[in-house]
Design goal:
2 domains; Serine Threonine Protein Phosphatase 5, Tetratricopeptide repeat; mainly alpha
């Protein structure tokens, strides 16, 4: 479909021609992707602005539930995120509970995190496909320290448990992200929490079981106990 290709490559003149012909600005392709979805994914800010001006619906989801704000947040297209926010995007629209804030946290896009939080994104909302994870779980898994700091500063629950009993600390330990582990412990994460899905192990047990010796031997747990 020409309008989708034009949006994918930021060809605004071609987009305009297609709309003049009467093509629906919200026309989905075979995957349910609209022209706006394509422009958001590929980072063409001027195309996003033009499509919205011409009536693009920012809340439409593709066949898998992806919407414009999640797409732009995943890719880290800060300017586009700002445009969507200014155009009235729902900060907490979700794909099975997975919001734009979850996406930005998993991808490590600090500026996007800032914009979403400032505009009302819920810090501790839980996803469903990730089994009840909050955004802090996702950046703990991927090792995004600065994003984790920002989330914690804005009220992220460092002891939030997913459906398997994993806290962000257990998640960070299992992935071997030492700096995240240190941050979470300094921020009040429970080092003695017992995870039901891991034989009721503590985070230190998890570090040993998952061969994360650099975390178990770092001293962060012991230092925390002594304070």
């Amino acid at each position: 479909m020409k309008i989708h290709i034009a949006s994918q490559y930021g060809e605004n003149d071609q987009i305009k021609k297609e709309l003049i012909k009467g093509v629906d600005v919200n026309l989905p392709d075979e995957d349910g992707y609209t022209p706006l979805h394509w422009a958001c994914q590929e980072g063409y800010q001027s195309s996003v602005e033009y499509l919205i001006k011409m009536g693009a619906d920012i809340s439409i989801c593709d066949h898998e539930g992806f919407h414009a704000l999640e797409i732009a947040s995943t890719k880290g297209h800060y300017g586009i995120v700002e445009i969507l926010i200014q155009s009235g995007a729902d900060m907490n629209q979700s794909r099975n509970g997975f919001t734009a804030l979850h996406a930005a946290a998993a991808s490590g896009h600090y500026n996007v995190i800032q914009a979403l939080i400032k505009s009302g994104a819920k810090i501790n909302s839980k996803d469903e496909d990730g089994k009840g994870r909050i955004p802090l779980h996702w950046c703990a898994q991927e090792g995004h320290v600065e994003v984790a700091k920002k989330l914690i500063e804005n009220g992220a629950d460092v002891n939030s448990m997913d459906e398997d009993g994993f806290t962000p600390l257990v998640t960070a330990v299992s992935e071997g992200h030492l700096e995240i582990v240190k941050l979470l412990i300094r921020s009040g994460a429970d080092i003695n929490v017992k995870c039901p899905a891991d034989s009721f192990s503590t985070p230190l047990h998890t570090a040993c079981a998952w061969n994360q010796e650099h975390i178990g031997s770092d001293g962060s747990f012991a230092q925390h106990d002594s304070t």
